[in-house]
Design a protein that fits this description.
Number of helices: 8
Largest sheet: 9 strands, mixed
Helix content: 10-25%
Radius of gyration: 22 Å
Distance between the termini: 49 Å
Number of domains: 3
Structural class: alpha+beta
Shape: elongated
Order of helices and strands: HEEEEEHEHEEEEEEHHEEHHH
Length: about 300
């Protein structure tokens, strides 16, 4: 019916579900030919999860979880303006079982912004969801991001610790403020071009827009970030301005990609690690930044030892 597990559980708890004319309990096991009737409250019609035939790149899947390489432009879960064209809708279309999760967000343990590409883990059972969420909360999930950022970091290895909160006037934006929640991002330069750095960024916390906010805060925003731009190419002055403008034109969206995801399997405890190379839609950005030799390679991040955490 396209309902999330949370919605279904609430209907059962309200006595709105019957089997063969008898009000059903959640523990009821169905058998062949049972007739199930669901009565939806007239004053509170549920929003069902509609299937959407959106192709997905699934790197790993078992009965507990699935690891997705999300393309840029795909919203993760239904929300105003995107009720039927999200990652969750695509998972429903392929018949993927999803855990309960928050209302309207079945299976979603962590999120990526719409225009951020890369790796996500989706929970298929409630047990997996709880254990994965706990692992993220206790920083036992490694999440590594690749980004093109304007200018050059003074130090190749840098820790950004700055509390983040929602903007008091613009609820779609986040800001750095002492009143916010603690947030930490580690940044390392992987390649240095004329007007931008290719960075490896590791999250120690998971605040909304954390990497984008932190990089703008230290004066090196993500290239072509529409919200936390920090001036974009205009911040580059002198003879390099044209190179910066060319980079901006060549970048179709914020140059941020979730390239590494590592965690222990919530059921078996086995160590899992997944990698995603620099995405195809940002290859022109790499070329415009000055990485001509890298664009010719199928594995620019591997070539630059991005996945070597000791590098």
């Amino acid at each position: 019916m396209g309902l999330s597990r949370t919605q279904a559980a609430r209907l059962v708890a309200r006595g709105a579900v019957s089997v063969n004319g008898t009000t059903a309990r959640a523990s009821r096991l169905l058998t062949l030919s049972d007739q199930v009737v669901v009565r939806f409250p007239e004053h509170e019609p549920p929003r069902t999860l509609q299937p959407a035939p959106i192709p997905l790149s699934v790197l790993f899947e078992d009965e507990h979880l699935a690891v997705i390489d999300k393309p840029a432009g795909l919203v993760v879960h239904p929300a105003p303006g995107h009720w039927n064209d999200t990652l969750v809708n695509a998972l429903v279309a392929r018949g993927t079982t999803l855990s309960g999760g928050a209302e309207g967000r079945p299976g979603i343990v962590h999120r990526l912004d719409r225009d951020t590409s890369g790796l996500m883990v989706v929970a298929k059972t409630d047990l997996a969801h709880r254990r994965l969420a706990a692992a993220i909360a206790t920083r036992r999930v490694h999440r590594g991001y690749a980004a093109l950022s304007w200018g050059h970091l003074d130090q190749s290895a840098r820790t950004i610790q700055a509390a983040i909160a929602r903007h008091p006037q613009d609820r779609k934006r986040m800001i750095v403020t002492p009143e916010g929640r603690p947030a930490r991002t580690d940044a390392r330069v992987i390649a240095r071009f004329e007007v931008a750095d290719l960075l490896r960024l590791e999250l120690h916390t998971g605040r909304t827009h954390q990497i984008r906010v932190h990089l703008e805060h230290i004066g090196h925003p993500v290239v072509d970030d529409p919200v936390y731009a920090g001036g974009g190419s205009r911040r580059i002055t002198g003879p390099l301005r044209r190179r910066a403008e060319a980079l901006e034109r060549a970048t179709p969206r914020q140059a941020l990609h979730a390239a590494v995801l590592a965690f222990r399997h919530p059921a078996s405890g086995a160590a899992l690690e997944f990698r995603s190379e620099w995405p195809a839609d940002l290859r022109e950005s790499l070329l415009a930044a000055g990485g001509e030799d890298l664009v010719a390679r199928p594995d620019p991040l591997s070539y630059l030892l991005f996945f070597n955490r000791d590098g």
